[in-house]
């Protein structure tokens, strides 16, 4: 009887310790359990392996040019610390004006690891708000400035080691979650090509004016 009681007590004690083991450690500080992401959830909630939170297509302008070539697209990593590309690289020459893709407020304008960076929190995109980042950019606005879609926030700096050629790295985050910045743009802006003048058909041409005296 005493042996059975000891076994039952040992089993209950083991279960109690298991509840505070790895699971509790993950809840308390493992990057994979919080906003920072984890296996199946890289870069934050909604990474590859989980459903990305919806991104409203609130953009109405490209950050550079009107339809710049994409040097490198969005490549979400398989794990929180895995290799990938957390943004989009757009080909552009140094000195090109960099514009806000949507209305918002400049939340950061400065240098990070020697590279100019501008971040804009987008208006009306929930809590936490969507935040776009642009680099390498020499900011022309200060933190706290309100911007409209298409407004210049800086100029593109000479290329860094990130791109083999001159490019703008454009990123998008919600909290600690990295998202595809191209998802901000509506389909008509993603597919719009150069404007062309087309012939007008079906409209009668005006009669030539009569010569004087006829």
How would you describe the overall organization of this protein?
The protein is globular, with a radius of gyration of 27 Å. A hairpin with a 2-residue loop joins β10 (167-174) and β11. Residues 1-49 and 194-203 have low confidence and may be disordered. With 214 residues, it is an alpha+beta fold. The chain has 3 helices and 11 strands. Strands 1, 2, 4, 5, 6, 8, 10 and 11 form an 8-stranded antiparallel sheet that branches. It has a 3-stranded antiparallel sheet with strand order 3-9-7, with no helix packed on it. Keywords: Signal. Residues 1-28 form the signal peptide. Residues 35-69 are annotated as: Disordered. GO terms for molecular function: metalloendopeptidase activity.
Helices and strands in order:
Blueprint: H1 2-19, H2 22-29, E1 70-72, E2 88-91, E3 97-99, E4 104-112, E5 115-122, E6 130-135, E7 137-139, E8 146-147, E9 152-156, E10 167-174, E11 177-179, H3 187-191
Antiparallel strand pairs: 1-2, 2-10, 3-9, 4-5, 4-8, 5-6, 6-10, 7-9, 10-11
Radius of gyration (Å): 27 Å
What share of the residues lie within helices? 10-25%
Q: Biggest β-sheet, characterized?
A: 8 strands, antiparallel
Q: pLDDT under 50 segments (min length 5)?
A: 1-49, 194-203
| Class from secondary-structure proportions | alpha+beta
- The residue-averaged pLDDT reads 74
**How many strand units?**
11
User: Helices and strands, in N-to-C order?
Assistant: HHEEEEEEEEEEEH
State the distance separating the first and last CA atoms: 131 Å
């Amino acid at each position: 009887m005493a042996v059975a009681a000891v076994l039952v007590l040992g089993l209950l004690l083991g279960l109690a310790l298991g509840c505070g083991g790895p699971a509790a450690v993950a809840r308390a500080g493992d990057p994979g359990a919080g906003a920072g992401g984890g296996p199946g959830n890289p870069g934050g909630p909604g990474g590859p392996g989980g459903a990305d939170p919806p991104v409203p297509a609130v953009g109405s302008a490209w950050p550079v040019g009107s339809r710049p070539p994409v040097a490198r697209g969005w490549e979400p990593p398989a794990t929180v610390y895995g290799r990938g590309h957390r943004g989009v690289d757009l080909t552009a020459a140094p000195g090109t004006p960099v514009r806000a893709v949507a209305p918002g407020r400049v939340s950061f304008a400065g240098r990070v690891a020697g590279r100019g960076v501008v971040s804009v929190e987008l208006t009306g995109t929930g809590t936490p708000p969507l935040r776009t980042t642009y680099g390498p950019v020499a900011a022309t606005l200060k933190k706290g400035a309100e911007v409209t879609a298409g407004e210049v926030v800086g100029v593109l700096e000479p290329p860094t080691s990130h791109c083999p050629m001159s490019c703008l790295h454009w990123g998008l985050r919600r909290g600690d979650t990295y998202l595809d910045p191209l998802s901000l743009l509506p389909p008509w802006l993603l597919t719009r090509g150069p404007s062309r003048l087309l012939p007008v058909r079906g409209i009668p041409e005006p009669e030539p004016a009569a010569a004087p005296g006829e």
